[in-house]
Design a protein that fits this description.
Low-confidence stretches: 164-169
Largest sheet: none
Shape: elongated
Order of helices and strands: HHHHHHH
Helix content: over 70%
Number of helices: 7
Structural class: mainly alpha
Oligomer: single chain
Distance between the termini: 33 Å
Amino acid sequence: MNRILSAAGRFELVVSNLSLALLVVVLAAQIFFRYVLHVGLSWSEEVSRFAFVWFVYISASVAAQRGAHIRVTLFARLLPVNERLTFLLADIIWIIFNAFVVWAGILLIQRTLTYPVYSTSLFLPLAYIYTVIPLAHALMIVRIVERQWRSWKHGVPLIAGEDAANREAGT
């Protein structure tokens, strides 16, 4: 199981880094072509948009694995219920939301395969671009469960930086 999670982690990092690199290179090329050569690249906006979408979705999964998503922890700490149980309930709700998005994303892909929709400049089937939606949310489900497991089993903080903040506060 650890090998699968490790491979998924490498996949997430490679895809998110390649997406970001592609985004930067395409935007730099567009700037160069437009302002130096006075010629616009018709495809650059579309490629950069798709790269940005893939970067954001896959990076959201990486953030879930690292516990780096923004959480409103003030209310969880004010409740009379155990904080770990509150975060567990919040993560269960998050998992349910992600499962819904996976399901809706699969339906979207099926629909765009049945009734093809193509991108304007590149004429790519958008079904390929949309695959990131269920993929990233499925990975997020895995990462949320993994993070909860490590928290309950090994005492790893659910929120990134919590251990350092607790050491500084002396708790």
